[in-house]
Amino acid sequence: GKRSLRQKVVDELKHYYNGFHLLWTDTKVAARMVWRLLHGQVLTRRERRRLLRTCADLFRLVPFLVFVIVPFMEFLLPVFLKLFPQMLPSTFETESKREEKQRKKLNAKLELAKFLRETIAEMAKRNKADTG
How many domains, the chain? Predict the structure, then answer.
């Protein structure tokens, strides 16, 4: 059904709260990783990727905070997100956006696999023709 204006506002506030909470948690974990790096420990590939994502999110947070702090500027946020789709920190992405990104990555991987399979088949035909 259709949601009321009050319910939409409450949902948006919950979304922002959850996004900031996740970003705070990621920042705490990243700080521990930096501490480990400063003391000579080596990070795993997964930890390194998480640290890089958190740092990127913190840099993206600065322009995003302008939209949150300045009154009524959040109405312009969808326009800026259309112009700059990577502006939003990753903790603020909705589930549908995340699924759409995964779908695009999967399609790209499938196309690459199809191309490689065709290339290998073509190379096998050439080798068979050369030896036969």
Answer: 2
